[in-house]
């Protein structure tokens, strides 16, 4: 059986971890298989969970969050017959041939929702609330800003991070206050890439009658008609695929981008009214151009800098 | 900083100060009666959970408030049992209550809602709406005063006004009523109260229950006013800050208002200005995060001077000679 | 009043309190629709019936011994040190600096240096609250809590902005050089035939903790300093009369307390993670309070209570692994243990005293007649 | 007698605290309109009995009859309802409340304070005139002298319309003038028909004011006699069970060189108030200098400064060598090294660590000395052995070094402190309130020890609020008032009246009623104190 280990934000963060959970559930439903999962609560538990699952014969062991890459690095060698998956993390494939690292081109998806935000904005000001201030989240912000600037050259993009510790993934109160501050600076579309903190962001945006953009999972349903769209990061698909492959999982490093449908934006009944046909056309055109390489979206992580936004 | 920004920061200050203020007044009642309470945090937390949970299940924010208050009062009574009836260590009882609330809230939330220790998001009648005071719209055009009234004074949830009204009420109860006289006396000299033929235990339980009531309101405000639901550990140290404010205020209601507004302001500023640029030197966000705590220490050490706590605080009352 | 025998006070009261806490915990487990017996079995199997389980239990216990001793030394001077958390964090920082920036030929030397640094850093972090309490009367409970928050912010800043290697996502230092890696129980006791303690983090720091118990015992009950610390704790006015400086004694007691809490950093940073991570202490500073109380502020008691809490931690992790019981159950159990052994102990003691008094009266009567 | 019912009648009251039987089958009748004295050794059970009467403790057996009716008194409220008021040995006042607030506490009319306060103001004024019980109703209690605080306690009882008043060791902390005033108040109350029960260790007071006196011993009521038909000697014997010497037997002093020289000593307290103003005094080898004064006039501060735990300026020489008065080298341990022994005024708060065993307490303050062992660790076995010997020499009962200090009675605790300080043969012994609250049997022993040390050629500075004790022990007497030494007299050449006036800061004898002058002086002092705190 496969096993799934969620990062500290918890299984029901309505975004990142929950996407993995949804993927696993879908797999279980479709195949009738069963899996075991655990929400981590402490640092020393990371290795422990990996080892205990490996010893108990679970395979593959899928983990979410970059914090798991170091523990996997420590453990993988002891269990050569077990496959480990680190979503969002990176483990050297040379050193540990039984590990699969799955990364996403978040900047590309963010670029698209950035465009949508800019097109929806009436104040020509959009904003971003990040969770923990790490390169990954900066990559979100950077892609978002690039997308927005592609639509409107002089648009103002306000970006704030919730904090610098893992607690920043789960602080809706602060997310809400940050959103308030951004609204007062003129923002009328806010993109939350902040895990559980985003719930506060989306809530405040809905309360204050501005648009918001969800992240990772499709969060459009949280406030129908008030969430412009969600930047999808198909952690669910990645999880599903890994479980589907089972013990025969191909290892190595994989980056899921627009062309793999690994990232994208969400369109459903909840936001149909908000996205006009022109908007959709513009975004779909950009999507194709990115896939074709005509538009290059800068990845913050490639050189720790962003042309469209300063942090 | 322009006037509008100032108003927004102050507006945020009021929102953030309200739970502190309610908790601080809660602590004030308890400590004035001689029962030290570092379990404010836990009581707020449990109230936040139950108010959100019941509000989510019934769709009524009032029922939520009731549930929050009941749960906080129950925890208060546990504290009372430990520190009044069984003369246990009040600090330890407080620590235990904080742990208990942190664990129970998530445990029950998971059991009831299965959303990882969170309640469902509250909608409609499950949350406190913001009250627009009369003439707010009409007056908002008036320069200076208008925006002040419309933005800062008007437009908060009912519990904010309750919190602020609690200040004069607390003062009046404490210094103008028989109950207040006895309450202050029992925190200073329980033996005087006892020999005067008044029940020390009864008074202290009453104080502790009031403390629970106010913590209950504070927690409800957090989860159903400020936020739209409960998330784990959502009090995030506010109980401790309230305690510091209480010492800073020297256990006096009006001073408590000032102290809580100050701490609220610090938090609002830290939220709003994450990286302050002072002529080339950027103050890191961590400094802003730590600022309320650093300032608490500085204030305690530098300005409070001799904050004389209620004399019998922390001491269980044992009849002797 | 009726005194009951010392053994009853030291053993019977905590034991009954513990039972009450366990009973209530069982009710809580029932309340969330799980089976308490099964849960207990899982916990015992996972924590005590496997050597790796012991490795985890003792790893956690090591943390709690240090923080428990820290709290109890301060308690003897009647100081309530809630700052173990922050002191341990900063202690970990000391360990990281020593391990990362100094070259070490052998782990034993690194351990000595890291222990000194951890103790020193922890002591420094306890110094300011101690000084403010001694000189300005600033309530140490409040200041140490504040210093926990400040320590977190400081560590956060250092990890995020200074010590984190380029390109790394999580706020942590680089892995310490291999020469500083401490031998784990696995390294020490496992053989080809008997792969004991496999993969568990229990390490040589555990023995350091035992040594700390002995040193603290001698310090408190055999040295003049311990005599003074206890005297101050019982009566400040008497201490001043005797020429014991309250300021000096408060500061020294807190320095020792902070140093002990800081030593916990050796276990987490050097023994387990082999790097410094943001949230390594994970509430051990607070657990230390419960451990000290349950252990009646005596090193032997602290040791036993630390093992108990280590068991709870490890057992709780096992529960989370194999059942759907959230790990917060363990927080609730801890809370109940603290409540019953620390704050509601008189609930057990008062009736017990009555029982002993009745027995004594009966015993007195018989020979007289 | 037969037609008036007793104000109080207790029948067969028993009470035990675990193994200690504090009261055994006690019966007593107190007639209305009388003052009834109760005496007995420490721990005889006097306070316990009165606490039962006031509903503080409940008796294991027995009945209480008030004014001819059987009354159940489960709590203080019931006692108050039955017309009983009590003034405890340690006052039960809220220090930072005003007199008025203290008086109405628990006896308010209605939920709001205002009406109660104005009513109480009127009643207090009336009571003040009726019974010479004047205190400023708006002063905070903490700014009142002990004597005035006691008046507040009496006012509290009268405000609740008590006609039976219990006073537990009321004069223990009063000056002679204050005690005189108290007795006049009690006289007035008796004249109004009130009944008073008075507990005291002082036989003089018993003889002076009571109508009847009961003696308690080891929890039992051993005798009740009419005061007019007994004598102090008889009472002492009834109390202790043997003949007691009520005077101190000592030879005239043969003072030699000055061992303790104090010049221009000044000391400021934490608030910057000058508590010692230019004190100069010397104590010679082989003499006892008594320091008399109303509590709070600087005697305690002087002992603290000399004992090394309060800073001061000026010069102090011990055995000719100057000792530092602040900074390093100014602490209790340094003082002991310099040859100053110190029996503190409050044995429980200062002299002993109550939870420590007796043997641990016998090195308290000397724990860095050679007798505690030479190595890094303390030599507990040796200390314990030495302690056992000391306790035997000082007749500490029980002679068990392992027993915690808190488990010894007051008198025996005092003996432990004395043993520790005297056995080291200090050149100078500072001794504060050596016999406060101690029964006459133990007083006899303690006084003997002090005189013995004097006769060994040591200098002794004695502070006591008991003028009797000062007279009995001292060779010279210095009187302190408001931080100054008002005068030094030879013990043989002065009297109570002169000292009483000096203690109130009056150096010229005004003639006539000295007590009134003293009282006026005390009132003024209270006002100054209150004014200083705003
Ligand atoms: N609260 C208590 N708990 C246990 N024992 C007590 C308590 N109070 C008094 N006792 C015991 O009761 C006995 C009588 O004490 P009590 O205080 O009545 O004596 P007393 O005659 O007032 O003494 P003193 O003259 O010192 O005031 C004491 O020996 C003491 O052992
Ligand atoms: N609360 C208590 N618990 C146990 N024993 C007590 C308690 N209070 C008093 N005692 C016992 O009572 C005895 C006498 O104590 P008590 O304090 O009444 O002495 P005392 O002579 O009245 O002291 P003092 O002179 O200070 O008033 C001691 O042996 C002590 O062990
Ligand atoms: Mg008594
Ligand atoms: Mg007594």
Automatic annotation (TrEMBL), chain B:
<feature type="transmembrane region" description="Helical">
    <location>
        <begin position="254"/>
        <end position="270"/>
    </location>
</feature>
<dbReference type="GO" id="GO:0022857">
    <property type="term" value="F:transmembrane transporter activity"/>
</dbReference>
<feature type="transmembrane region" description="Helical">
    <location>
        <begin position="91"/>
        <end position="109"/>
    </location>
</feature>
<dbReference type="InterPro" id="IPR001851">
    <property type="entry name" value="ABC_transp_permease"/>
</dbReference>
<keyword id="KW-0812">Transmembrane</keyword>
<dbReference type="GO" id="GO:0005886">
    <property type="term" value="C:plasma membrane"/>
</dbReference>
<keyword id="KW-1003">Cell membrane</keyword>
<feature type="transmembrane region" description="Helical">
    <location>
        <begin position="12"/>
        <end position="30"/>
    </location>
</feature>
<protein>
    <submittedName>
        <fullName>Sugar ABC transporter permease</fullName>
    </submittedName>
</protein>
<keyword id="KW-1133">Transmembrane helix</keyword>
<feature type="transmembrane region" description="Helical">
    <location>
        <begin position="158"/>
        <end position="175"/>
    </location>
</feature>
<dbReference type="Pfam" id="PF02653">
    <property type="entry name" value="BPD_transp_2"/>
</dbReference>
<feature type="transmembrane region" description="Helical">
    <location>
        <begin position="65"/>
        <end position="84"/>
    </location>
</feature>
<feature type="transmembrane region" description="Helical">
    <location>
        <begin position="290"/>
        <end position="309"/>
    </location>
</feature>
<keyword id="KW-0472">Membrane</keyword>
UniProtKB/TrEMBL annotation, chain C:
<protein>
    <submittedName>
        <fullName>Sugar ABC transporter permease</fullName>
    </submittedName>
</protein>
<feature type="transmembrane region" description="Helical">
    <location>
        <begin position="241"/>
        <end position="264"/>
    </location>
</feature>
<dbReference type="GO" id="GO:0005886">
    <property type="term" value="C:plasma membrane"/>
</dbReference>
<dbReference type="InterPro" id="IPR001851">
    <property type="entry name" value="ABC_transp_permease"/>
</dbReference>
<keyword id="KW-1003">Cell membrane</keyword>
<dbReference type="GO" id="GO:0022857">
    <property type="term" value="F:transmembrane transporter activity"/>
</dbReference>
<keyword id="KW-0472">Membrane</keyword>
<feature type="transmembrane region" description="Helical">
    <location>
        <begin position="276"/>
        <end position="295"/>
    </location>
</feature>
<feature type="transmembrane region" description="Helical">
    <location>
        <begin position="302"/>
        <end position="323"/>
    </location>
</feature>
<feature type="transmembrane region" description="Helical">
    <location>
        <begin position="12"/>
        <end position="33"/>
    </location>
</feature>
<feature type="transmembrane region" description="Helical">
    <location>
        <begin position="110"/>
        <end position="128"/>
    </location>
</feature>
<feature type="transmembrane region" description="Helical">
    <location>
        <begin position="87"/>
        <end position="104"/>
    </location>
</feature>
<feature type="transmembrane region" description="Helical">
    <location>
        <begin position="140"/>
        <end position="160"/>
    </location>
</feature>
<keyword id="KW-1133">Transmembrane helix</keyword>
<feature type="transmembrane region" description="Helical">
    <location>
        <begin position="53"/>
        <end position="75"/>
    </location>
</feature>
From TrEMBL, chain D:
<keyword id="KW-0677">Repeat</keyword>
<keyword id="KW-0472">Membrane</keyword>
<keyword id="KW-0547">Nucleotide-binding</keyword>
<keyword id="KW-1278">Translocase</keyword>
<feature type="domain" description="ABC transporter">
    <location>
        <begin position="260"/>
        <end position="507"/>
    </location>
</feature>
<dbReference type="InterPro" id="IPR003593">
    <property type="entry name" value="AAA+_ATPase"/>
</dbReference>
<dbReference type="Pfam" id="PF00005">
    <property type="entry name" value="ABC_tran"/>
</dbReference>
<dbReference type="GO" id="GO:0005886">
    <property type="term" value="C:plasma membrane"/>
</dbReference>
<protein>
    <submittedName>
        <fullName>Heme ABC transporter ATP-binding protein</fullName>
    </submittedName>
</protein>
<keyword id="KW-1003">Cell membrane</keyword>
<comment type="similarity">
    <text>Belongs to the ABC transporter superfamily.</text>
</comment>
<dbReference type="InterPro" id="IPR027417">
    <property type="entry name" value="P-loop_NTPase"/>
</dbReference>
<feature type="domain" description="ABC transporter">
    <location>
        <begin position="8"/>
        <end position="243"/>
    </location>
</feature>
<dbReference type="GO" id="GO:0016887">
    <property type="term" value="F:ATP hydrolysis activity"/>
</dbReference>
<keyword id="KW-0813">Transport</keyword>
